[in-house]
């Protein structure tokens, strides 16, 4: 009977739990709500006038406290009879109070405190006011990597100083030896620092750093601190000294990963901008090389360097590149690839319109031709512009090999590009619409190989193309040697298993393998990616219309390439439009015949070398005394 009662009781509790609502025992999950500034949500009104008035009163109160301390010092000095000894220090502090009082005029104070952007304020002569601004600007002490170091320079009279820097972005030895130690050792000689141009005397006589600049606004101070500089504030001075102490960790110079060569240089760019510019200047040691810096990104403040040869590059091209770069309105810029999409003429077209390289020697060659290089801080790939279609099939070692070998390799790359683009589409078009174009024996061999395959030919090609792209992407994303192993083993096993299972025919596996190998002959990765995408476009037209569709697609692509421009230069120059053809377009001529620069660049100096660059040919050889 008890067993029945227990069973009924459990059944009753089970039904009760199903029918009656019970609040969950777990806490509610986190839900990310819309921010107050999103559309449809009214922001909470902010009492700007009250906040400005509160800031003004706080500044006046700090001034009152400092004035009270000054009066106490004067009173103490008079009572102790040390007024003559302390008169110099009291004069300095009194002049600082006068200057601070002028800065606290109602009009200036209301203007500074009404601004919502703290960085727009000017540097104050009061060290306390500057500290308040720095703490508000960097959310101190919540922000743990911002260091504020107060120093008393034991001069006559003493100078209160504040050093501000970001831990991790400065080099500690440089900071200690070039900033802190010189300032602290000033007390040994009791210098009289206050007087005419204290900041100028500090810079000229007591700071051994190689890069020092002055600033009078917090916008410049913020830019310097965020770049790895140390900001020095002095009490009673409304200027700041920015000392270069940059020293964050970065990758050292290594071998190129995507543009390896047998005979070319072995240096590659890194993520450090100054290291990259130095490598270019090592390869191109000329004072005519100009490096201009532009800040891009309202929040990231990314440094973008524009390099060009001043006596070679077209001034209109330089002005246009700077105009487009300065005209970028975004809050964050992460890479040179993102920058190129902001400044190129047609970013939606997959064909690259700037040459991307990680080799300093290649950048130096293009700069000497009159092109422009763009470097983005934090990215090891540099863009060279303008670029035409044939530039992407040149290699850095073309001029390091003999003429016949280099031209053979260039023609092989162009032939591989053509095979990679049209071979699958050509097979589909002939297999479906133009079987009579094949010899009878070859046609019968293809038909016999597809006898047990239940799928149409276009489906086989599409499946194998997507499978090959999956293997390629997996090999790229898997790190180290395991990636290439996965690619090789995956391709062999997948192809063999697909043929054994009668999923695809052997002829399709051969075609896809030849197509994939041909795509690897393209030196530029972005151009290779565009060709891979174009291959599917040609396949679609071939499935629908055969050779007519393939020809239509080819014609459409040629028309598109003819209409494209890279920073004002036609994409298919010097073929369309026809211009003066040099000896370095499809094939290259001898190095001693490279007399002129590319005509399409319209450089200021079109002459590269004289017509007879091998002057030794016309000279008599040096003979020994015995031969004379």
Main attributes of the structure:
12 strands, 5-stranded antiparallel beta sheet, 628 residues, alpha+beta, 4 domains, 19 helices, flat
Explained architecture:
With 628 residues, this protein is α+β, with helices and mostly antiparallel strands. The chain has 19 helices and twelve strands. The protein has four domains: 46-116; 118-249, no CATH class; 273-387, no CATH class; 402-570, no CATH class. The chain has helices at 2-19, 48-79, 83-103, 106-114, 127-137, 172-184, 198-206, 218-226, 273-283, 315-326, 336-343, 360-368, 403-432, 440-449, 457-477, 481-500, 506-519, 525-545, 547-563; strands at 146-153, 159-166, 212-215, 229-234, 240-244, 289-296, 302-309, 355-357, 372-376, 382-385, 565-566, 569-570. The chain has a five-stranded antiparallel sheet with strand order 1-2-4-5-3, with helices on both faces. Helix 13 runs antiparallel to helix 17 and helix 15 runs antiparallel to helix 16 (481-500).
Task: State the gist of this model.
With 628 residues, this protein is α+β, with helices and mostly antiparallel strands.
Biggest sheet, strands in spatial order?
Answer: 1-2-4-5-3
Number of spatially distinct domains: 4
How much helical structure, as a percent, in the residues? Answer: 40-55%
Tally of DSSP helical segments:
19
Question: What characterizes the major β-sheet?
Answer: 5 strands, antiparallel
Question: Nearest-angstrom radius of gyration?
Answer: 36 Å
Q: What percent strand?
A: 5-15%
β-strand number? 12
Inertia-based shape: flat
Mean pLDDT: 81
Give the terminus-to-terminus CA distance.
Answer: 135 Å
Sequence stretches where pLDDT stays below 50 over 5 or more residues: none
